[in-house]
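ARCHIVE CARD
Drawer: 12
Card no.: 0347
Subject: one protein chain, sequence and derived structure
Cross-reference: see card 0346
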Amino acid sequence: MDRPPALAASLVQEFVGVAHGDLNRVTELLAQEPALIHATWDWGGGDWETALGAAAHMGRADIARFLLNHGARIDLFARSSATAITERTERETSTRCAL
């Protein structure tokens, strides 16, 4: 079975990097290379991160939702960060409704 070529390291690094806060660029890069949705980047010392993990730990629910809607896999790190986002969003919504 033939496998597609590996993704360019610079592209993976950019994708995971911009997933910390730039939804427009995430959208552009994913349209350019759909396989990025499952890519991971090693920031050094075994600190591996996915775009979903990046968005989740930065509290970027908009980017996280976009990635999930495009097939991103939830790992343990992304799940714990996403739980924190959900809880914070629910608290903020409750506070606004109470006002």
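Annotation on reverse: The longest helix spans residues 76-98. The chain has one domain: 9-98.
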